[in-house]
Design brief:
Blueprint lengths: L1 H7 L4 H55 L5 H9 L3 E5 L2 E4 H19 L5 H31 L6 H12 L8 H12 L3 H21 L1 H16 L4 H8 L4 E4 L4 E2 L7 H6 L10 E2 L5 E10 L3 E10 L2 H11 L3 E3 L11
Antiparallel strand pairs: 1-2, 1-8, 3-7, 4-7, 5-6, 6-7
Helix pairs in contact: 3-4, 4-5, 5-8, 6-8
Length: about 350
């Protein structure tokens, strides 16, 4: 016992400090490592929970979009941020956001105009029809964008802006941009950017149709020549060309704001007996020629000839027949009780 004590007295002060330090550190390690392990578990658990929540959100969103075919505002905003495909046309993805834009713009107008006059079954039928139409439209425009790329056809921001300004003045009304945007929001549930996206697609498709439809271009040139040779006798030219064109008469005065592809608006610019130059319809489905019969301050009476575009639709039909259009959603039309 005395030997041990004697031996201990020989330790230097530094050695005793080191021993004490080691004792303190050893005691601290008993608490340090369990705490590190707890933090480690917390991090792992947090990551696992986040992954599970994310997976649930992804699965829920997938079910809502691709199985339940939901179209609410939140899902629409998601598809604008994430470029999800709703279909594929000739290897080109169709944007889910484009499909929802066309559907929402159509169904909102119907819902707000008709109110609650439809029963649930009829409303479901109408929604299914508009979904089918919106999906077909978005597929058409996607293919048009693909053809535009292959033929170096573009639509500039300036062209879209000019078309937007033209829509401001449809019917001869000088609306402010703020008022027109309010109309778009109230009647179509779209923002200005979403509306401009629709204008862009319409313009690009019209340019593509003009570029690829040799038959329509040839017929339009023939109409121009025959109108000039006949003294702008529209009925006589229509008889001569038959089914290759579409001839129409208003049969009397109609509203200058008439939604007719832009014919009433164009006729309002003319004087009685005057004929317009060739112009493309507002929805881009053909060329129009218009001759004004008479007009008032708010109404017009005219005849018109339309040269429809057919080549684009023919190509789309071929793609469907060849199985080159695949859709990722199923739109089933519910039966309506008679």
């Amino acid at each position: 016992m005395n030997l041990l004590k004697k031996k201990d007295t020989k330790k230097t002060e530094q050695e005793r400090v080191e021993e004490r330090r080691e004792e303190v550190l050893a005691t601290g390690r008993k608490f340090k490592y369990p705490l590190q392990w707890t933090k480690h578990r917390i991090v792992i658990n947090t990551i696992l929970i986040s992954v599970i929540v994310l997976a649930m959100v992804v699965i829920g969103g997938w079910l809502a979009l691709y199985r339940l075919n939901m179209t609410d505002d939140l899902l629409f905003r998601v598809t604008k941020v994430i470029p999800l495909p709703v279909a594929v046309v000739d290897s080109e993805n169709v944007r889910f956001s484009d499909y929802l834009t066309f559907y929402r713009s159509s169904i909102t107008s119907i819902e707000r105009q008709s109110g609650s006059q439809f029963d649930e079954s009829s409303a479901d039928q109408i929604k299914a029809e508009y979904k089918r139409s919106a999906l077909t439209e978005s597929e058409d425009y996607t293919y048009a964008v693909k053809l535009a790329k292959s033929q170096d056809i573009t639509v500039t921001d300036e062209e879209v802006a000019a078309e937007f300004d033209r829509h401001l003045k449809i019917g001869g009304i000088d609306r402010s941009e703020e008022a027109f945007v309010k109309i778009i929001e109230d009647n179509f549930n779209l923002t200005k950017d979403e509306y401009e996206r629709m204008l862009y697609l319409t313009l690009i498709k019209a340019k593509v149709e003009m570029a690829i439809d040799d038959k329509a271009n040839k017929t339009a040139a023939e109409v121009e020549k025959l109108l000039k040779d006949s003294g702008y006798d529209y009925a006589a030219v229509a008889d001569q060309l038959g089914d290759s064109i579409i001839y129409e008469e208003t049969g009397g005065l109609v509203d200058s704001k008439n939604l007719d592809g832009g014919r009433a608006t164009e006729a309002m610019k003319l004087e009685p007996g005057q004929s317009s130059d060739k112009f493309v319809s507002m929805n881009g489905d053909g060329y129009y020629f218009v001759k004004l019969i008479n007009k008032t301050d708010t109404e017009v009476n005219f005849v018109s000839i339309k040269v429809p575009f057919t080549e684009f639709d023919s190509r789309m039909s071929s793609l469907r027949e060849d199985g080159k259009i695949s859709e990722y959603i199923t739109i089933e039309s519910p039966s309506v009780d008679e």
